[in-house]
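Narrative summary of target 7.
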Amino acid sequence: MNEQDEIINRIPIRLSNRLSLQIHQFPLLSRPLQAPPSAEASGKRITARIKPQSRVLEIHVPADTRTEVYNSERGHEFGKGQLDDDREKNQERKGGQGREGEEPRLAEIRLRSEEIPHRGTQMLGIVHENELHLHPINATHQFRPTLTYLDILSRKSRRRAGDDSDSDSDDGPPPDPDEPVPVTAAKKKEKKATAGDAKEVQVSARRTDDKGGNLSQLSNARKEMLAIIRAEQDESWQDLQFCGMTTEEAGHSLDQFFSYKSEELHCSTDVTTFLTAAQKA
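Modeled conformation, tokenized:
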């Protein structure tokens, strides 16, 4: 700030932390998060659910199933794959696949969250009635479409084609480095070696002690990763109520964001400590 710069206005700052505030980002969404008009007309709404321990959220947006924009044949195929995927992961929703005896179909788009770690403290600020209201952000999640049902369909397709024995198959987790490598019998040569074809062979042994630590670390990291995946799959979903931006509940939450307390806050950090922390961040 130069000496010639003038202070145009001063506004008070109000700080509040009464809400558990999260930021939800949708990098691949190019339109507002809302159900298609045709789905809303038939009574379908956006739903959400959460796994609290795993800190994973899902938002289910009804699909536009009008005949002019929806492929019914592919929809039934993807619906079967999604149903099998839910059953395999023990996350099938009660009543989520329509009426009993009805062929399943893909009638919703699932957006799954991934938590983004914070660096430092992030705040959300809103200028309201000529005052700046600040509120800390507890977590940030990015939502992207989940297409795990395609893996189920791809697996079935390979089984039908008889390609399960291929080494490139991605069925199941990768092999454990701690487990011994299975020995496969070498193919017999067409011509058998005779006594006159004997040759001198030199055999040397190499030490593998230096690689043992790396393999152990790799195995431990893999086991921890698999344990996290299993714990997430075993945790049950809890339903949430999804409220759009124009709903009364959303307006009530916005009112709770603002603080009207007149208690003054005193800074306990000097300028040097603040600048040092800012450089490290």
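Residues 209-234 form the longest helix (26 residues).
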